Amino acid sequence: MPVNVPIDDPNADTEWNDILRKHGIIPEKPPSPTPIIEEAIANARDHAHQNRLEDKDLDQLDELEDDEDAEFLEQYRKKRMAELSTISRTSVFNQVYPIQKPDYSRDVTDASTHAFVLVHLTSSLGANTESRILTELWRELARKFGDIKFCEMKADMCIEGYPDKNTPTILVYHDGDIKRQVITLRELAGTKTGIKDLEKLLIDIGALKGNDSRLSHSALPAENSSLTGRKAMPPSSTAEDDDDEWA
């Protein structure tokens, strides 16, 4: 005849519960998550400490000479110097390139196998404020990030019948394919869009690292990007073919 064994709290650390567990009357107590949480916190702190100099440029590293281990500091100096050398070697563009439709494949698609290529499809009308804003910002970005190719082309010359209401449009190319499409500055900050907003876009698409020394102060990776990934139409397409794509 089964015996009803009194159990107040099967998870309590009592001698009585230990006896019940030993005889299989109640299951073993699950391991406490506390050590796992404590280990995760310790690992996160250690990682943050080891990477505390990741966002420092050479001048900032020099200011830390009295506070950091000399050998550790020198490792980061060498790392920064190597990054600057790479930037200098790959900064071959440094201007906005006007694009013609016959040259699109060569100057954009093929060029993106060697570097990120961003195309600004501009308004064909002179009254589009956002398009004018982006044109000015495009020039500043091109001067600042010479390892990225910035191009510009009138939208209706690229895609026949492309609606002006969808300009400015940014097309991001890399590895010979289109990776991202941003339609109008509403997806950024509208007419208040500034250089930092576009730098965040460059980080988001992988064209820049978040610790790039050229970035404006506080231009950090976007955590909640609202950028769309709409399918892009090649330059040979027409608006009548897929009118809903651009609505």
Structural class: alpha/beta
> If strands are numbered along the chain, what order do they take across the biggest sheet?
1-3-2-4-5
Approximately what portion of the residues adopt beta-strand conformation? Answer: 5-15%
Radius of gyration: 28 Å
| Average pLDDT reading | 77
Please mark out the parts with pLDDT under 50 across 5 or more consecutive residues, or reply none.
Answer: 220-234, 236-244
Q: Quote the distance from N terminus to C terminus.
A: 76 Å
How would you describe the overall organization of this protein?
It is built from 8 helices and 5 strands; from the N terminus they run H-H-H-H-E-H-E-H-E-H-E-E-H. With 247 residues, the protein is α/β, with parallel strands linked by helices. Strands 1-3-2-4-5 form a 5-stranded mixed beta sheet. The protein is elongated and about 85 Å long. The model is unreliable at 220-234 and 236-244 (pLDDT under 50).
Question: How would you summarize what this structure contains?
Answer:
This protein is of the alpha/beta class and 247 residues long. It has helices at 15-22, 34-50, 58-62, 70-90, 104-110, 129-144, 155-158, 195-204, and strands at 96-98, 117-122, 149-154, 169-174, 177-183.
Annotate the secondary structure layout.
Layout: H1 15-22, H2 34-50, H3 58-62, H4 70-90, E1 96-98, H5 104-110, E2 117-122, H6 129-144, E3 149-154, H7 155-158, E4 169-174, E5 177-183, H8 195-204
Parallel strand pairs: 1-3, 2-3
Antiparallel strand pairs: 2-4, 4-5
Supply database-style keywords.
single chain; alpha/beta
